[in-house]
Write a structure and sequence with these properties.
The protein contains eight helices and six strands. With about 180 residues, the chain is an alpha+beta fold. Helix 4 crosses helix 5 (about 125-135) and helix 7 (about 155-160) packs across helix 8 (about 165-175).
């Protein structure tokens, strides 16, 4: 492995937001666990993003715009529509973080409307939604609540994770659970 590899692993294990963390949901979740960025099962997405030196601006945007990610010189800025429900804002933060992690080399600017949610055939937007879903509703935490704590209500799960019922329903189905509709 060499000295360089050893140093990188040591940095990551100490909770430093190193380059390797920026490549996967799993790395970000490990960083969040190590740095206690959870309130119960709910990820403090704002602290996670801030720890990566990405600025968050709560802004009044057109109602059809959830948020955006843009480069400002050497810095990255996420704008969130502060008029939207807090759960929408949290998912949008996860979605914009996904653009940063997955797509920042492709573009300097991403603007996301509410219309793409769940309806997009765009692979970039689907990947960002999937990333945000896995980040905000980690498989192990969802399964623990359902299997060990016997939580059966989509609304209760959504409340615990700080996401919409629609996002929670999608995630539960994605994990293979059957639901009543």
């Amino acid at each position: 492995m060499g000295t360089r590899g050893t140093k990188r692993i040591r940095l990551l294990s100490q909770g430093e937001p190193g380059e390797m963390l920026l490549t996967s949901v799993e790395g970000l979740l490990n960083f969040a666990e190590t740095n206690r960025l959870y309130n119960g099962v709910q990820l403090d997405i704002r602290k996670l993003i801030s720890s990566m030196n990405i600025e968050i601006k709560d802004t009044v945007l057109d109602p059809s715009i959830s948020g955006s990610l843009s480069r400002d010189g050497d810095n990255w800025v996420i704008q969130i529509n502060k008029s939207h429900h807090i759960n929408r804002q949290r998912f949008t933060l996860g979605h914009e973080l996904a653009h940063y992690v997955l797509h920042k080399s492709d573009s300097d600017n991403f603007t996301d409307t509410i219309l793409f949610r769940g309806l997009s055939n765009d692979n970039i937007e689907r990947a960002a939604n999937d990333f945000a879903s896995r980040l905000l509703m980690p498989e192990d935490k969802v399964k623990h609540l359902i299997n060990n704590e016997q939580v059966r209500s989509i609304d209760e799960l959504a409340n615990r994770f700080g996401v919409s019922a629609a996002a929670m329903l999608y995630r539960v189905k994605q994990l293979g659970y059957k639901t009543k509709e």
